[in-house]
Design brief:
This protein has 238 residues and is α+β, with helices and mostly antiparallel strands. The protein folds into 3 domains: 79 residues, Integrase, N-terminal zinc-binding domain (Arc Repressor Mutant, subunit A), CATH 1.10.10.200; 80 residues, Alpha-Beta Plaits; 71 residues, Alpha-Beta Plaits (2-Layer Sandwich). The protein has a 4-stranded antiparallel beta sheet with strand order 3-1-2-8. It has a 4-stranded antiparallel beta sheet with strand order 5-6-4-7, covered by helices on one side. A hairpin with a 3-residue loop joins β5 and β6. The N and C termini lie far apart (48 Å). It is found in: Cytoplasm. One of its GO terms (biological process) is regulation of DNA-templated transcription. This is Probable transcriptional regulatory protein A2363_03630.
């Protein structure tokens, strides 16, 4: 009986892992497809930087090469119906939310997002309601083990970066969106080790939250990110 129970638990854990992996692959695939589409059909990652980022993210979740190739092909053909869209809203405690999605059905996506927001104490807002509280910025992360902050700061300034912030085990190099590609390429030429490079919505105004609101917002974000259509969720929560 105990053996059966253990096997059942193993099967359940595998099923959960498979679901998580499938969701990660779906998100990565859509990001690749939309990068090709919005990049004018350019399928060479050396000529389409957003595609390069999408492929790196796909590799980060161990997406097979054939899946990546299929997603690229969809960007020039069958995946053309996909579009990138942002939704705005509020979470518990008045926290602002920007939800970025890639979808082939706006009605389905907004319905799913609205349902989660309302169920977790949030509300969907009109376009422009909270967008102004954020700014698009590029972020490149560099492991602390790679170099000192002084060395990185000098290289980042020379490359045209805006700022370098020290975190617990890494450095964050911030750039304007227009300088993102140039800064990354310049740092790579200087042999700077870059763990991750993404474009984000960075909050300009921060909202203080208590533990109760934070817990509810964490649940809200977790449920939103579980949707296949949702790529990223940004908040201005501390």
């Amino acid at each position: 009986m105990s053996g059966h129970s253990k096997w059942s638990k193993v099967k359940h854990q595998k099923a959960v892992t498979d679901v998580v992996k499938s969701a990660a692959f779906t998100k990565a695939s859509r990001a690749i497809t939309i990068a090709v589409k919005e990049g004018g059909g350019v399928t060479d990652p050396n000529q389409n930087f957003h595609l390069r980022l999408a492929i790196e993210k796909a590799r980060g979740v161990n997406m097979p090469k054939e899946n990546i190739a299929r997603a690229i092909a969809h960007g020039t053909g069958g995946g053309a119906s996909l579009e990138h869209i942002s939704y705005e809203g509020y979470g518990p405690g008045g926290v602002a939310l920007v939800i970025e999605a890639t979808t082939d059905n706006r009605q389905r996506t907004v319905s799913q997002i609205k349902n989660i927001l309302e169920r977790t104490g949030g509300t969907l807002a009109a376009p422009g309601a909270v967008d102004y509280l954020f700014k698009r910025r590029g972020v490149l992360t560099v492991p602390k083990s790679a170099m000192t902050i002084d060395t990185l700061l000098e290289a980042a300034i020379d490359a045209g970066a805006d700022d370098v912030v020290e975190a617990t085990d890494l450095f964050e190099v911030y750039t304007l969106p227009s300088a993102f590609v140039a800064v990354r390429l310049a740092l790579e030429e200087k042999q700077v080790v870059i763990d991750n490079a993404v474009l984000i919505m960075h909050p300009e105004t921060i909202v203080q939250t208590d533990d109760s609101a934070r817990a509810r917002i964490d649940t809200l974000i977790e449920e939103l990110e579980a949707l296949d259509d949702v790529q990223s969720v940004y908040t201005n929560m501390t």
